[in-house]
From TrEMBL:
The keyword Nucleotide-binding applies. GO terms for biological process: dTDP biosynthetic process; dTTP biosynthetic process; dUDP biosynthetic process. Residues 8-194 form the Thymidylate kinase-like domain. The gene is tmk. This is Thymidylate kinase. Its EC number is 2.7.4.9. It comes from Bifidobacterium saguini DSM 23967.
Length: 207
């Protein structure tokens, strides 16, 4: 594949969406064609899966079994790669995704009962081994980031402080294990400071 694949990760409310849009604007100004997308829900099928994952079925959000949850996120990702990410990269475009497989590793394995290895195997199978060239981890204390959220909490967001702290730590551990792919950015800084860190890095990556 000839395009450039970038993902943003972090716990809820760290400002990923804002930085994704900054990066889109920057790259478009450089003449690149950019596809901005997200998980879960980057495709029509994915939207249906997202609805189930975040809001449950028939108003009952409590009983999605951990393995079912992991499979639904992986199914969303498989469709996302097949329908959106893969074709865009084949066309030589830049793909920026708000969350990708590290979210599954951090949320499904970091916070719940499944092991990182089984979640990784599942996602690598689902995506035919497609990993981003760069992953920006926007890191911040979940207690702070949650107070920034401006909507009612969904099923994942309401999983509790302990779950969110474990998720944050899982992201940091993933970043430490793959320092070439990850850049960890302190998201408690101002929007401008966070963007400056990303801009500096992407300029180097594009060269
Ligand atoms: P997101 O779209 O970032 O939420 P919002 O639109 O509310 O900002 O993600 C939805 C939730 O799904 C989020 O709490 C993280 C969770 N998630 C997982 O648990 N596993 C995954 O693989 C992905 C992609 C997301």
């Amino acid at each position: 594949m000839t395009g450039l694949f970038i993902s943003f990760e972090g716990v809820d409310g760290v400002g990923k969406t804002t930085q994704v849009e900054r990066l889109r604007t920057y790259l478009e100004a450089q003449g690149r064609t950019v596809v901005v997308t997200r998980e879960p829900g980057g495709t029509a099928l994915g939207q249906a899966i997202r609805q189930m994952l975040l809001h449950g079925v028939d108003g009952d959000s409590a009983d999605i079994a951990p393995r079912t949850e992991a499979l639904l996120f992986a199914a969303d990702r498989a469709q996302h790669v097949a329908e959106t990410i893969g074709p865009a990269l084949e066309r030589g475009e830049v793909v920026i995704t708000d969350r990708y497989l590290d979210s599954s590793l951090a949320y499904q394995a970091g916070g719940r009962e499944l092991t990182p290895q089984e979640i990784r195997n599942l996602s690598m199978w689902a995506t035919n081994d497609l990993l981003p060239a760069r992953t920006y981890l926007l890191d911040m204390d979940p207690a702070l980031s949650h107070s920034r959220l401006q909507h009612e909490e969904d099923r994942m967001e309401s999983a509790g402080d302990d779950f969110q702290s474990r998720t944050r730590q899982a992201f940091l551990d993933l970043a430490a294990a793959e320092p070439n792919r990850f850049r960890v950015i302190d998201a408690s800084q101002s929007i401008e400071q966070v963007w400056l860190a990303i801009e500096t890095d992407i300029a180097g990556l594009l060269q």
